[in-house]
UniProtKB/TrEMBL annotation:
A Pfam family it matches: HTH_31
InterPro entries: Cro/C1-type_HTH (IPR001387), DUF5753 (IPR043917), Lambda_DNA-bd_dom_sf (IPR010982)
Highest taxon above the source species: Bacteria
UniProt-recorded name of the protein: XRE family transcriptional regulator
HTH cro/C1-type domain residues: 20-72
GO molecular function, one term: DNA binding
Ranges that cross the membrane: none
Length: 274
């Protein structure tokens, strides 16, 4: 985890930033003064205080020594490391996860990859493990597997998943993983609360080509929409915007195959990985 343009949403990083600002302010030090005293740049202090950079162990220990905090900053920095798998999640995703657990209905469209709630563990590892250390990847895989309980628990959410055919044909992790993944889609599609259909590669424009998104519905709250672009997530709650996504989802499903035709296509693609 390095520096970034937008603040990290991870609570541990936010807490470190707030504590640093509080201790520096209490000591009546400017960022420049603290930086010069500790041997860092004012820009670095500013980045950490704005939660845009992750503090190092050495920096935390230097702060503890200077402010005589009895190890406060080192403990906070250790907490950041212990929860670093959460820090790399897209902005907005943490809020989405909280709402996902409460959803009574899920409607999702994916253009390029199998959606997380539908992924096998092997497929997850192939996606999540790219560019991450093993420990962080394992924690993220465990969290995603736990998220899938929204589809299998008692009183599970009713879910409609629409995938572009390209998501089936993108070889993630090799033929064996893909065969297992597509067989898993067929198995999930047999559940009474899950519907999976496929938009075939029809060679023309349809609304789904602008990108994937998820609509969550609740028994006692307004719908919300979540989407990602270039690693940035956004949870949308504005009713007028959410309603447009509902219309978009209904529209793109008009280009999808019927359920049994979709199952036939999934089977054909799965056999092609033989």
């Amino acid at each position: 985890m390095g520096s970034r343009n937008e603040p990290y949403e991870a609570p541990a990083i936010q807490t470190f930033a707030c504590e640093l600002t509080a201790w520096r302010t209490e000591a009546e030090l400017t960022k420049t003064a603290l930086a010069e005293t500790l041997g860092y740049t004012p820009q670095w202090i500013s980045q950490v205080e704005s939660a845009k950079s992750v503090p190092s162990k050495e920096f935390a220990e230097n702060l503890d020594t200077f402010f005589k905090t009895n190890g406060l900053f080192r403990r906070l920095q250790k907490r950041i490391i212990d929860t670093r798998h959460q820090a790399i999640l897209p902005p907005g995703f943490a809020a989405y996860q909280e709402r996902e657990v409460e959803a009574s209905q899920v409607r999702n469209f994916e253009l390029t990859l199998i959606y997380g709630l539908l992924q096998t563990e092997s497929y997850m590892r192939a996606v999540i493990g790219h560019g991450l250390d093993p420990d962080t990847a394992e924690r993220l895989v465990a969290e995603r597997l736990q998220r899938q309980e929204v589809l299998t628990r008692e009183n599970a959410a009713h879910a409609w998943f629409t995938l572009d055919e390209s998501a089936l044909r993108r070889d993630i992790g090799g033929p064996e993983i893909m065969r297992e993944q597509l067989a898993h889609l067929l198995s999930l599609g047999e559940r009474s609360n899950i519907s999976i259909d496929i938009v075939p590669q029809i060679g023309k424009y349809y609304p789904g080509l602008t990108g994937g998104f998820t609509i969550l519905s609740f028994s006692n709250a307004p719908d919300v929409v979540y989407g990602e672009i270039a690693g940035q997530g956004m949870l949308i709650q504005e009713p007028q915007i959410v309603s447009k996504f509902a219309v978009r989802y209904n529209s793109l499903r008009g280009d999808a195959l019927r359920i049994e035709e979709s199952r036939t296509l999934i089977t054909e693609v799965m056999e092609g990985y033989g």
